[in-house]
UniProtKB/TrEMBL annotation:
Molecular function as annotated in GO: aminopeptidase activity; metalloexopeptidase activity
Keywords: Aminopeptidase, Coiled coil, Hydrolase, Protease, Signal
Protein name per Swiss-Prot or TrEMBL: Aminopeptidase S
PANTHER family, per the entry: METALLOPEPTIDASE M28 FAMILY MEMBER, PEPTIDASE M28 DOMAIN-CONTAINING PROTEIN
Residues covered by the PDZ domain: 587-656
Annotated organism of origin: Lignipirellula cremea
Length: 669
């Protein structure tokens, strides 16, 4: 409990900390508003990682820090903590993407199916690069579902072989199927199929359209053709009904007919096709961490050739057999192999955290309080956007121009006083948060000031839409004193505070809590514009943002004024960090900032199965049970092959050496 004798700040004094700006007559013209307006402007084009706009934002933030008189010559004379990340995967040149299926000689002639890039097959971004020369194995839908007692890899050796996997899952038209009939279960997802193949030791994956997909595409094409014909009929009817159309109307009608004719031609061509199309390079998802594990997509027609030659049957018949009795038909394709090459290039970009320091004064000056907010967003959309079909500027006014503006305003209010704080205050505008807390993960790996003397971290993410006076604050239980401190400050701030437990969550405070640093995370709630192009400046609650800044200033002052550092509290039952659901609980905390083949850990949840087994921050899990682990998707898939209470061996890389520990998996959370 917080004892008043330990604090030099009373409730009345905290109320006086609110600067004059809170009473400004026109908040719309304030420094805070102007900062948020600029950071969310079209000029910065959504502050996408690897794009020009985010560099402009970084330069602006750095300049503002310098204007305040903060120390910014921190790294080679600048405030930028730079590092490199992979921002996208791109398809390599045609000469490095080739695939041929080679079979045993028949009638004295070699059997060979050469696939044409872009027509018969395509590499996928979710895979990596490698030279191919390995046997082929057909594994049906590529599903291992222990809970359904269905395993298409059972008694099948696919190690160092190339597996052929059908899209979707069995019995798609059966509403009573174990696989939920016409609803996709997680087993239908590309990433899960690929992860399962990787776990079983396969060398590469060839995905192929299932029969139902062709039927679905045929129905869609027929419907599109029908709509195209109807659109022409409607246009003609409407024009004929016009009495004495003007020359302008005639011209417009002719232009409309040209466009409708093009639409009709495209629809007619699609309707007449076999609907057996390959996926586009990025259509199965963005790049994965398995850099040497190729994933390809081939047409059904191409794969049918070798199925007929090897098994004397067809994919249609194999699918029907699975549907009839729900038993796998997986088998090696004797004498057949795939040769060729897949090249997937990884495009990298230099990114940077922007850091400034307000030095402390006195005996506690070597201790640090971090205040942070991320400044990146989604650029023109794409991965991460909740309107992925729209290529438009995602200005991210609330997410997180609001937090970055509040960070700068907090820095201004704290730095413009005559008296210095007792402790060093480090202000960090993080990059790469939208891609997995990359900036904060990098900082805690390479801190400018020792983490052991970093006593607290305050994070602001989406603080621009205060509604019903509700301020969500996470972390009140990450230090012994924080709950009472929060109540004390809010006595004058008068928010409707919603307290959220724990220090782990989908923002940058999580990286610090994983390093046993108490945290506060402030958030005003999500909304319909989240991760969409409509998250614009004019929807921000500027008065609410201003009050949030007052609150953060008061939090900082109170933590700084206490001569005793906050006492860190471990959460014995933290919230789930990664995907949960029905799988057993491990308690690992992923480190998205480390690019490595395996599952890198930023930490483990205190008291979790991983913690009790001795798994540590910095470990890279490369095997769980019998499953090979190369990414986050693999660990999720591997856990689903086990049950709570099971004791499984886990192999981790620690200081470049393999260490095996036994983990007793926990109940799902």
């Amino acid at each position: 409990m917080l004892r008043s004798a330990r604090w030099s700040l009373s409730v009345g004094l905290l109320a006086c900390l609110a600067p004059a700006l809170s009473a400004a007559e026109n908040i719309a013209d304030s420094r805070l508003a102007n900062t948020a307006r600029y950071l969310s402007s079209d000029e910065l084009a959504g502050r996408g990682v690897g794009e020009k706009g985010i560099d402009q934002a970084a330069e602006f933030i750095a300049a503002e820090f310098k204007k305040m008189g903060l120390k910014t010559d921190l790294i080679e004379g600048a405030p930028y903590q730079k590092f490199t990340i992979t921002i996208e995967a791109v398809q390599g040149p045609p000469e490095q993407n080739k695939l041929t299926l080679v079979g045993p000689a028949k009638d004295g002639k070699p059997q060979q199916v050469e696939l044409t890039l872009g027509q018969d097959f395509t590499p996928l971004a979710i895979g990596g690069s490698s030279v191919l020369d390995a046997p082929l194995v057909f594994v049906g839908y590529g599903i291992t579902a222990a809970d359904l007692e269905y395993d298409e890899y059972a008694n099948l050796d696919v190690k160092d072989k190339i597996v052929i996997i059908l899209r979707k899952e069995p019995q798609q038209n059966n509403p009573h199927s174990l696989f939920d009939g016409d609803k996709n279960t997680p087993h239908a997802f590309f990433q899960n199929k690929v992860a399962n193949a990787y776990e079983h030791g396969a060398a590469a994956v060839i995905l192929v359209n299932d029969g139902q997909e062709l039927i679905t595409q045929a129905k869609k094409a027929a419907e599109d053709l029908k709509k195209a014909i109807a659109a022409i009929s409607k246009a003609v009817t409407e024009f004929k009904a016009t009495e004495k159309p003007s020359a302008e109307a005639k011209t417009k009608y002719q232009q409309q007919l040209v466009k409708l004719a093009e639409r009709l031609q495209q629809a007619s061509t699609a309707e007449a096709s076999d609907h057996d199309k390959v996926l586009a390079f990025a259509e199965a998802g963005p790049s994965a961490s398995r850099k040497t594990f190729p994933v390809m997509f081939a047409t059904r027609a191409a794969i049918n050739q070798l199925i007929e030659a090897s098994l004397d049957t067809t994919l249609d018949k194999l699918e029907q057999k699975i549907d009839d009795d729900l038993k796998p038909v997986s088998t090696a394709l004797a004498g057949w192999k795939a040769i060729g090459e897949v090249a997937v290039a990884q495009h990298e970009a230099e990114v940077k955290n922007v850091i400034a320091v307000l030095p402390g004064e006195g005996p506690l000056a070597d201790e640090t309080i971090v205040i942070g907010a991320h400044y990146d967003h989604l650029g023109m959309g794409g991965t991460g956007s909740l309107a992925p079909w729209t290529k438009a500027i995602h200005n991210g006014a609330d997410d997180n121009a609001s937090g970055a503006a509040a960070l700068l305003e907090t820095a201004w209010r704290l730095s413009q006083r005559e008296k210095k704080p007792a402790r060093r205050i480090v202000f960090i505008a993080f990059t790469g948060e939208e891609r997995g807390l990359l900036g904060s993960a990098h900082y805690v790996r390479e801190p400018l000031f020792p983490l052991e003397s970093t006593i607290a971290m305050i994070n602001m993410d989406m603080v621009g839409r205060l509604s019903d006076n509700k301020l969500i604050i996470q972390g009140f239980d990450t230090a012994v004193s924080f709950d009472a401190l929060l109540d004390t400050i809010n006595a004058s701030a008068k928010f409707e505070v919603v307290k959220k437990t724990g220090g782990f969550g989908p923002s940058d405070h999580s990286s610090f809590y994983a390093k046993k640093i108490p945290v506060f995370h402030l958030f005003t709630g999500t909304h319909a514009d989240y991760h969409r192009p409509t998250d614009d400046f004019d929807k921000l609650n500027l008065e609410g943002m201003d009050r949030v800044v007052d609150f953060v200033v008061a939090l900082t002052d109170a933590i700084d004024a206490d001569p005793k550092r906050p006492e860190y509290v471990e959460k014995k039952k933290p919230e789930v960090i990664a995907r949960g659901g029905s799988r057993p609980y491990l308690g690992s905390i992923p480190d998205f900032g480390v690019e490595v083949e395996g599952y890198a850990l930023q930490g483990v949840a205190p008291g979790s199965p991983a913690d009790e087994a001795g798994i540590k921050a910095g470990d890279v899990i490369i095997k769980l049970g019998a499953s090979k682990i190369g990414s986050l998707e693999d660990i999720d898939s591997a856990l689903r092959k086990h049950k709570a209470g099971e004791k499984v061996p886990v192999v981790v890389l620690r200081d470049k050496k393999e260490v095996t520990v036994m983990v007793t998996l926990g109940e799902p959370r």
